[in-house]
Amino acid sequence: MNTKEKIEQILRQTLAAIVVEVEDESTLHVGHAGAASGGGHYRVTVVSPLFEGKSPIVRHRMVYDALAAEMQHTIHALALTTLAPSQWAAT
């Protein structure tokens, strides 16, 4: 399982996410100091009912907590979009 698939699996299981979109943007950061450590850059959209009523900061913390082990080795940077199902339906 590659890192993109692992991120998706973790977020679906941990946050009961109904939508997880993961885009690997690592190739855009070749030569960046963080890329030297081997960690990738990812753009992630997560839609979870657990986000209802929570601020964007709390939602981001929930994602970072869920991915804490991956952040130690395989993820260098995340660009997050975190939405409740009601927000997703409005897009």
Summary tags:
91 residues; alpha+beta; GMP Synthetase, Chain A, domain 3; three-stranded mixed sheet; 3 strands; globular
Portion in beta strands: 25-35%
Alpha-carbon distance between the two ends: 31 Å
Report Rg. 13 Å
Unreliable residue runs = none
**What fold name stands as the CATH topology?**
GMP Synthetase, Chain A, domain 3
Largest sheet: 3 strands, mixed
CATH superfamily: BolA-like
Total number of helices: 4
What is the CATH level 1 assignment? Alpha Beta
Strand arrangement within the widest β-sheet reads: 1-2-3
Gross geometry: globular
Average pLDDT rating: 90
Q: How are helices and strands ordered from N to C?
A: HEEHHEH
- What's the number of structural domains? 1
Helix content: 25-40%
CATH architecture classification name: 2-Layer Sandwich
Structural class: alpha+beta
The total beta strand count reads 3
Summary?
By secondary structure, the chain is of the alpha+beta class.
Q: Can you describe this structure?
A:
The protein has 91 residues and is an alpha+beta fold. It has one domain: 2-Layer Sandwich (GMP Synthetase, Chain A, domain 3). It has four helices and three strands, in the order αββααβα. The chain has a three-stranded mixed β-sheet.
Describe how the helices and strands are arranged.
Layout: H1 3-15, E1 19-24, E2 40-47, H2 56-66, H3 68-71, E3 75-83, H4 85-89
Parallel strand pairs: 2-3
Antiparallel strand pairs: 1-2
